[in-house]
Amino acid sequence: MTHSEKRSHWVREGLLATGAGVLYGLTSVVVGHPLDTIKTKMQAQAGFEKTSMTKSFVQVLKTQGIRGLYRGCLPPMMGSGIYRSLQFSVFESTYSFCEGTWACNAIPLAPGGLQYRVLLGAAASSVVRASIETPLE
Fold it and tell me: Which of 25, 54, 60, 85 is the most exposed place for a label (fewest CB within 10 A)?
């Protein structure tokens, strides 16, 4: 979905963005959690503090298997799916809601014709994400 195409109703745009946000949240945990696991072990667990990241990764795979890399991933996965989906949804809803208003005007001297509605969507989505993410982190 690009922002140069005709927008549908702001509620529909928000729902589509919710799905994209959930997928992004889940993907980020699937990719990032093993790295966080290794980093945490290297920082806090005896036997890992003087090994390289690669050796720590191999050691976890040998002793605990793939499950060892993803141990404890459910809470971050749920949290990430929730706050990222809301962030995407609020941005798209705000952006689409401003269609045909003064917010579609380009900001003077802004590069690339940046519109006010982009800033409004970014501000609204940032407040929502921070309000949800901060107590969870």
Answer: 54
